[in-house]
Amino acid sequence: MLESTFRTGLLNGKTAFVAGGTSGINLGIAEAFARYGARVAVMSRKQQKVDDAVAHLAQWDEHACGYAADVREYAAVEQALGDFHTKVGAIDIVVSGAAGNFLAPASQLSANAFRTVVEIDLLGTFHVMRAAYALLRKPGASLINISAPQSTTVSFGQVHASAAKAGVDMVTKSLAVEWGAEGVRVNAIVPGPIDDTEGMARLAPTPAARKAVQASCPLGKFGGIEDIAGLALFLASDAGQYMTGTVTYCDGGQVLTMAGALSPSAVQQMLAQGA
Ligand code: COA
Ligand code: NAP
After folding, report:
1. Which of 29, 70, 135, 260 has the fewest other C-beta atoms within 10 Å?
2. CA torsion sign, 147 to 191 to 102 to 41?
3. Residue 220's CB: how many other CB atoms inside 10 A?
4. 25 touches ligand 2 (CB under 6 Å)
């Protein structure tokens, strides 16, 4: 049984759409899907990033395609997913990973800044899930939302990301309950601190902050993009076929110590240094 489940072409014949898939963790996920045999599409705002990502993914999927669209605009998301569906048929895997974040204490955060992050992360995730629903393979589809430790752990300067990602976790669980009967699985991944990403460049921009982050992980180190891609591969494939409604940490154990939280003084210091 294991031989048939964990074959090289784990995702052979499957189709995967990755929102926010043109850089960092999400591009790594799209690459893993393509390497294991899926036909992939990525979507993000900037045409150049889309073109570069598609060229990269073409190494493993010669039909890889991309869409320049903002997850905050439902019609644009619907159009991108609809076009991919026209090209490939029923969609097996959808990842919602577009996000925006920066360090800002609540007292210095404008209402528009809070709204912007909530609209990208939370509303954007609902848009992607909702627009994909009619186009999914049923039964069999696997939907994966990318959450963050801030959804459960309070970090100074992160009220906007916490509110948005806590919402993402609940969208995940709600849709798992509503769509489970149709054979659609919905899970969330919580990446811990992942090196060489835009997220870490923004949240741990100084050597001192990097050291503190590493120390907060029982494994004592940053994760790599491949670590998150591995979990996504599991959840997307039939190997994860009994998984739904989960919010799974891939974080070197950081959540156990609750020490991932940025201290007020560390954040003030980083902001003073122009972070
Ligand atoms: N601190 C405080 N407020 C900030 C900020 C910061 N570092 N960066 C942006 N804002 C505020 C802006 O001032 C604006 O509020 P205002 O109108 O009251 O002045 C609001 O956020 C929206 O900014 P804008 O630049 O118009 O938004 P955008 O939609 O063009 O970009 C961001 C969205 C701000 C999230 C941008 O950082 C982004 O595109 N991020 C994507 C990449 C990323 O964050 N990756 C890491 C993922 S974890
Ligand atoms: P990243 O490289 O900046 O990835 C964000 C992606 O989303 C980019 O492709 C970006 O491309 C796209 N995007 C941003 N706003 C968008 C919008 N409005 N509409 C459509 N696409 C949009 O960041 P990352 O660090 O790899 O983070 C990826 C995911 O992991 C995020 O969900 C983040 O919250 C989560 N995460 C990261 C870490 C970490 O350590 N890095 C830890 C926990 C959670 P465009 O600019 O072209 O739009």
Report:
1. 70
2. negative
3. 10
4. yes
> Which numbered ligand comes closest to the C-alpha of 189?
2
Overall domain count for the chain: 1
- pLDDT band for position 257 (cuts 50, 70, 90): confident
- Give the model confidence (pLDDT) of 126-141 as tens digits: 999 999 999 999 999 9
User: How many separate helices (H) and strands (E) can be counted in the chain?
Assistant: 12, 7
The Å distance, Cα 96 to ligand 2 centre, comes to 10
Query: Ligand 1: which residue has its CA nearest to atom 21?
Result: 113
Distance CA 160, CA 117 (A): 6
Write out pLDDT tens, residues 49-90.
999 999 999 999 999 999 999 999 999 999 999 999 999 999
Give residue 167's domain range: 2-272
Which atom of ligand 1 sits closest to the CA of residue 101? Answer: 44
Q: With a cut of 60, say whether residue 154 has pLDDT above it.
A: yes
Measured between alpha carbons, how far is 93 from 159 in angstroms, rounded to an integer?
30
- Report the CATH number at residue 115: 3.40.50.720
